[in-house]
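Please go through this protein, sequence plus structure tokens, and consider how the sequence yields the tokens. Keep your notes short.
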Amino acid sequence: MGIPIVLDGGADVPRGEESLIRVPLNLEIAGEHYEYPGIPKERVIGTILKNPPGSVKTSQPSPKQIMSAIQEVSEESGSSEVLYITLSSGVSGTYNVARVVARMLEKKGITLHVFDSKSVSGGIYLLARQAMALSESRATAPEIISALERLRDRVRVYFTVPSLNYLVAGGRIDPFRAMVAKVFGILPIIHVDGDGRLALFATAKRKKVFSELADVIARESAEGEPVFAAYTPCAEGYDELFLEQLRFRDIEPVWHELLSPILTAHAGPCVAGAGFIAGEADGDADGSGR
């Protein structure tokens, strides 16, 4: 058996692979504490969307939560090494907490390799997918991490939301830019930038936002590489409209999953977006890998 791969609640994975998410992230909703994973994704997302923007608080895992999860994985796998691919350090302190825990675990004979995904949602899974393949082929931890560093520069995540209220309330997007977008009646296209932060990539008129988002993905995605689509529930069915635009461009997402509750708390309802791997030339174009 190779090195086990572990993710946290900031990742989205295909159905059937939920066991990859072992480190919980925390939510506080109407005074109640929740951990994800730990409760069904659909249930907690429904609870989040019943509350106004900014009212749901999220927080990184405690050292105890990470240590408990890693020790359990180590015992189950019989491996003294574990690779933990964290939610981007640009949006969470999870990576830094995990590095502290790694030093604590050394005293218990467990080597925890901590890798900053600098991504979110399905972007993290695309990294994990590569790591699992390399682990199965008996690659060493340094070899896996080196490969992930190269791939990370090519991982892209883009999404759109009908309102920036949740992202502004959570401090993820500049309020002035959100106000300008609202005044001009345009919708945002958000991406994860080179520092692993959520940033405004472009804007588009409401009727064209899915078309323009699909154009970006079609232009940047590497031929033959899978696309991971993610969404939050929406009566308007925005995720289906987005999928239609992708299919018009001969792009069929391999996975189509609900967005993590942790990210839903900051993005709100009606999210539609995708994670994918960019072509080599695109990944090196601006020096940032994003």
Q: What stands out?
A: The domain at 155-283 is CATH 3.30.1180.10 (Hypothetical Protein Tm841; Chain: A;domain 3). The chain has a mean pLDDT of 91. The longest helix spans residues 121-136.
